[in-house]
Amino acid sequence: MKDVQKTVGLIADKQKKCFITYIDENGFPQTRAMLQPREREGIKVFYLSTNTSSNKVKCLRENPKASLYFVDQRFYRAVCLSGTVDVLETAEAKERIWRFGDKMYYKQGIADPDYCVLKFTAGKGRYYSNFKNEDFLITDN
Question: Is the predicted pLDDT of residue 60 greater than 60, yes or no?
Answer without folding.
Answer: yes
